[in-house]
Amino acid sequence: MRTQVAIIGGGPAGLLLSQLLLKRGIDTVVLERRTKDYVLARIRAGVLETGFAGLMREAGVGARMDKEGIKHDGARIAHPQGQFRIDFKKLTGDHVIVYGQSEVTRDLYDAREAAGGETLFECAGVTPRDLDGEQPFLTFLHGGKMNRLDADFIIGCDGFHGPSRQAIPEAARREFEKTYPFGWLGILSETPPIDDELIYAGSERGFALCSMRHEKLSRYYIQCPLSDSPEDWDDDDFWAELKRRLPEEVAETLVTGPSVEKSIAPLRSFVCEPMRWGRLFLCGDAAHIVPPTGAKGLNTAASDVHYMYHALVRHYEDGDSAGLDQYSAQALARIWKTQRFSWWMTNMLHRFPDQSEFDLRVQQAELAFLEENEAARRALAESYVGLPY
Ligand code: FAD
Ligand code: DHB
After folding, report:
1. H or E element: which one contains 238?
2. pTM for this one?
3. Using a 6 Å cutoff on CB, does residue 32 contact ligand 1?
4. What are the residues whose beta carbons fall under 8 Å from the beta carbon of 357, sequence distance 6 or more?
């Protein structure tokens, strides 16, 4: 088999890139390790920057997002002394769109199938080869036999555990990592959201987040110890703990019900440099992870796709490889600013096991400063709605 651009990973980054390229007549093959149903069942992010939404429209898959996605002009921050609002619209003129990652992925698969784009599911042992030569290729097991896919370029959109990043020789790559001593326990429930905007709550008992997918589907998270597992939490325990972390007047309005999904995600900050090795380019979680506070994981994957897409179009349409040469530095410049934002939001709103009294006072001052100072709120809002590409 031969294609122009071979994409490893059929998550949001791989699918969005392949759909954008397909629109420009650039041929791609997507190799995915799992089944389509498995990918679609993963409940993950829910907040899209307008830059992401713009890419979806450019890929020709924005119609359902524009119809069913919910525009949010602000979000709330709650703390033990009260709560305040970050007015995105007033502070930045911009907004975010609440539309689940599983819906984004479904729309992208539907469009890819309708356009006849090739996606191979249940590929095992995908291995990138000859990346530093002129003719890279992939080998993989599919349909009971070994296959070979030749390509001009290989794009690693295979998430944090995929093989692409590991294919960059250790001596040529540097990894930066920070782990946090807690996770997020998340549930999805078929109940109306507690508010029409998201609530990020820093409390004495730890962080909580009230989010949503639509008017009858809510998504809630609470900070939990890394040693917990979802089975340790029955629904009643979860609702009781969530209420304890919200301001009383907000907690009173919570509508509870059975959870339809429950999972724990550890928190991590991670960056791999560079994001290019020869003819291999990394996009999304394959190259970096942010802690979820601030909703940047999926959005950062989209900014990589933006740079990668334009670099490839420039190469194929104008014969100019400058975009490819600049890709890693350009993507990393935005990623590090997003890393800073996600790390800062995480530090401001979570309880850390080793936090001193001094640390706690600084955390309270940070929240008070934000509440009182419009410039500080604007800085938060600018990062939240998404830095320019
Ligand atoms: P992925 O979505 O990970 O997609 C990678 C794809 O590559 C997968 O389909 C995978 O099956 C495939 N793959 C892996 N290995 C191979 C292989 N060897 N061969 C072929 N294919 C392979 N972000 C937020 O903003 N908010 C959240 O609440 C949030 N929650 C999250 C919860 C969890 C449990 C996780 C893991 C992430 C969460 N994120 C969240 C982050 C966000 O979902 C990711 O940033 C986003 O999915 C990145 O997209 P991606 O396409 O780069 O990677
Ligand atoms: C969601 C997840 C986040 O990490 C976040 O900051 C906001 C919303 C969500 O899943 O809805």
Report:
1. helix 235-244
2. 0.97
3. yes
4. none
